[in-house]
Design brief:
heterodimer; A: mainly beta; seven-stranded mixed sheet; globular; B: six-stranded mixed sheet; 0% helix
Chain lengths: 111, 111
């Protein structure tokens, strides 16, 4: 079964600084990959998904971007963080058109 | 807009009682999944039910799906303190690669 790694686990960044969150997947190939954000005490908001290398679909207009340089690597980036970017970022993986599995998440605090 | 909405938003029960959570959605789906999230952690996949299924069991979990009403329910029988968590439903709209999550039900099981 697949394993999803995310790092860092926690991150505190100043407003205006850049961001790079990484997600890698083991144990599967050609997965669909997803980035979600969860505000404190809230549900999950889908930010980006990718069905293959270099293929990114954006769900919500914002100052974040995503890239998929390799089959099992998904990166979430920002050039300048906003206070509103604080939250819990979750990477997810889906193969075979069925269950979606999640990584452990990165808690981002923008000060 | 949010595809899934859970009801109730919060639920507090005594250990040993049953807990029932409901999920409503808006569009046609392929699958519906239920997840559990312990505080500050990633999501754990509980159970998937396909649109042509009406009921599914897994241990103490029972999920029903009524596509005519666009709703699903998750029943946890003989609850334990360890079941304390937030529970989310996620729907996979027909023709998309995306799972959209509801706002979640916060379950508290009192020992």
């Amino acid at each position: 079964s697949q394993t999803i790694h995310q790092w860092p686990a926690t991150l505190v960044q100043p407003v205006g600084s850049p961001l790079s969150l990484e997600c890698t997947v083991e144990g599967t190939s050609n997965p669909n990959l997803y980035w979600y954000r969860q505000a404190a005490g809230r549900g999950l908001q889908l930010l980006f998904y990718s069905v293959g290398i270099g293929q990114i679909s954006s769900e919500v207009p914002q100052n974040l971007s995503a890239s998929r340089p390799q089959d099992r690597q998904f990166i979430l980036s920002s050039k300048k963080l906003l206070l509103s970017d604080s939250g819990f970022y979750l990477c997810a993986c889906r193969t075979g058109g069925t269950e979606q599995f999640f990584g452990p998440g990165t808690r981002l605090t923008v000060l | 807009s949010q595809q899934g909405e859970e009801d109730p938003q919060a639920l507090s029960i005594q250990e040993g009682e049953n807990a029932t959570m409901n999920c409503s959605y808006k569009t046609s789906i392929n699958n519906l999944q239920w997840y559990r999230q312990n505080s500050g952690r990633g999501l754990v996949h509980l159970i998937l039910i396909r649109s042509n299924e009406r009921e599914k069991h897994s241990g103490r979990l029972r999920v029903t799906l009524d596509t005519s009403k666009k709703s699903s329910s998750l029943l946890i029988t003989a609850s334990r303190a360890a079941d304390t968590a937030s529970y989310f439903c996620a729907t996979d709209s027909s023709g998309t690669y995306k799972y959209i999550f509801g706002t979640g039900t916060r379950l508290k099981v009192l020992a």
